[in-house]
Amino acid sequence: xxxxxxxxxxxxxxxxxxxxxxxxxxxxxxxxxxxxxxxxxxxxxxxxxxxxxxxxxxxxxxxxxxxxxxxxxxxxxxxxxxxxxxxxxxxxxxxxxxxxxxxxxxxxxxxxxxxxxxxxxxxxxxxxxxxxxxxxxxxxxxxxxxxxxxxxxxxxxxxxxxxxxxxxxxxxxxxxxxxxxxxxxxxxxxxxxxxxxxxxxxxxxxxxxxxxxxxxxxxxxxxxxxxxxxxxxxxxxxxxxxxxxxxxxxxxxxxxxxxxxxxxxxxxxxxxxxxxxxxxxxxxxxxxxxxxxxxxxxx
Length: 299
Fold this sequence. Notes:
Layout: E1 4-12, H1 13-21, E2 26-31, E3 35-40, E4 46-50, E5 60-63, E6 79-81, E7 85-88, E8 92-95, E9 100-102, H2 114-130, H3 144-165, H4 169-179, H5 189-201, H6 212-221, H7 228-238, H8 244-254, H9 261-269, H10 275-293
Parallel strand pairs: 1-8, 1-9, 4-5
Antiparallel strand pairs: 1-5, 2-3, 3-4, 6-7, 7-8
Helix pairs in contact: 2-9, 2-10, 3-4, 4-6, 5-7, 5-10, 6-7, 8-9, 9-10
Protein name: DUF2877 domain-containing protein
Pfam family, one: AllH
InterPro entries: AllH-like
């Protein structure tokens, strides 16, 4: 098998810092067409090596490769980093000499006027409709199993938002347990909704920011309800760390850049088969919640 050689394009600052410390022990967790997930032995956290077509994200290293379909890696693959080159067995060599450090844009919450918020919501709804999303939050098919799951997702998300509106920690905790791992696919719909919601709640000065410690506590305690890949996205979202396209959308919304909204929604809605639509449902819920609870800053 011919070795794949690639250049590192960009990497999350935390990923680069950990590599530089020299005590970073990684094993291959999983491989997909455009993603290789690596598991840290010390923390159990996942770090990802992704192809150039994907955007920057927490714990992620983007490289110049276009796909990993022919790459043979597994749990026995040895990883080695010498300060300049990251080697994944005999199959992949990554030159980090010119790697750019990625930092997400700074965000600050502002309460949005009802008219502005309605425009954002309409743009998001239009984009989700345009791709014929299979999101269970919008399921209208005849599959009884999906119908029941869709109802559980809608009730659970509504109950979670109501818990924060009424400042009821018990309701918040119970609703979170019901949403974690609920759905189908690699990242279940309930988890994707929570990623979107938490990405908004984590913006400084959001009125529901105070609930993030409770949300993080429940996610950690109930980790068994979902898979490791989805769990990592949740933990990072609670910390305000999400994919670059999500951060760019939130920055556009809070900066009042309406002309760029549609352009920023598209990369998010195209995440996975339905994950993007579910994330956007969570973002919408977070924006509406912030508007309901109010803030001293009005757009």
